[in-house]
Amino acid sequence: MVGKERVEDLAIAGGPPAFRESLHVGRPNIGDRARLLERINDLLDRRWLTNDGRYVRELEAELARRIGVRHCLAVCNATLGLQLAARALDLSGEVIVPAFTFVATAHALQWLGIAPVFADIDPRTHNIDPAHVEALVNERTTGILGVHLWGRACDVRALAAIARRHRLRLLFDAAHAFGCSHDGRSLGSFGDAEVLSFHATKYVNSFEGGAVTTDDDTLAARVRAMRNFGLAGGDRAASLGTNAKMSEVAAAMGLTSIEGAEEVAAINRAHHAAYRRGLAGVPGLAVVTYPDGERHNHQFVVLEIDAGPAGLHRDDLDEVLRAEGILARRYFHPGCHRAEPYRSRPSASELPHTDAVAARVLSLPTGPAVDVESIALICRIIRLAVDAADRVRAHVANARRGRGAEGVC
Ligand code: T4K
Fold this sequence. Notes:
The protein has a seven-stranded mixed sheet with strand order 2-10-9-6-5-3-4, sandwiched between helices. Strands 11-12-14 form a three-stranded antiparallel sheet. The chain is α/β, with parallel strands linked by helices. The protein has helices spanning 33-46, 54-67, 78-88, 104-111, 130-136, 156-166, 217-226, 248-259, 261-279, 307-310, 314-323, 352-358, 372-387, 389-408; strands at residues 23-24, 71-75, 94-98, 115-119, 141-147, 169-173, 181-182, 185-186, 193-197, 210-214, 285-287, 301-305, 326-327, 361-364.
């Protein structure tokens, strides 16, 4: 492993990169490969590949049991899960959402012709601010779509009270939140319904996949029909539907991934602690922490960089890390309100906390594909960059100028 002791050792200053093979944020957790292949062989032998197969049913039962809900409907991804849930809840007009989230949250609504109305976040939790939600409610509002960002519960109690007061439906995007709890209760069990993601980069994955969870029997029946073309048994379509089914091979991966989930959470937890130790006391830097006494998957290690005391902007640090082969991610910059098609709307939103947080966060590599020695080295690089911020800024500016010149040629 390359030593990083002086500014000259940094790759941005001409030193060799710390990692020859790039480190990514979202390397998939593969789990027990033999067990997965066993399941895949079994489904091939049985020639049952999709359409409510044995593994999908097993996965749904396992998720419902772990989350503590009556119904779990597996779907091919969380984006379609959000669309199904929104339609099954009869959402229309406007739905209030945070802008500080992956763009899929807003797109899922807009795809259905529902306008996402963006509320600001609480800068301490990065989650939707209930006071701003309530200020945005009007006669066109039909629902609230909260996001448990980084797997940290949004203020479910305050949002439920607002929903009750204004007769709104309450949906949660729990894409990050499998394996997390709030007040001792699993995320995935709040509101009218919740939607989980099992995309390849998630804590538990099914290659692509997701699930809608709810205690509402009628809602579950609607989602079940809608994900399968609106068929209500046999060939008869009883409602409008689409194809959002999860395949058997995806469910086989999901089941295998769940079996290894606790081990992955333990690794993630240790990595999170290693980053906190490695970066303790560095001016202007703070690793986002999660509530004590709750279960958490620690899937994201989110670093907040306050450019004043750190002497470096988040984008400068990102550039320093990239040169070293550390591909951190600026999740979720710049906020949905600044992405199309939303930024061109006539009534663009002012969201000061979203803008400020989106400009200072950086997600760092973690998960079983990263080891603690690599994390120690990443921390050393970050520490070194902040210690010599003035010189590092000059190197970053040079690198940017160099790229600009290349562009001209
Ligand atoms: N709501 C929220 C709050 C979400 O965060 C998401 C998705 C959704 C809803 C929608 O869920 P799904 O419809 O996807 O089920 C990724 C994921 O594609 C997306 O699922 C996720 N959130 C989002 C936060 O991250 P990208 O564009 O950053 O992915 P990508 O391809 O750059 O992958 C991240 C890193 O992982 C890369 O550096 C490479 C590495 N990677 C990726 C894949 C797919 C691998 O090493 N192997 C792989 O197979 O969006």
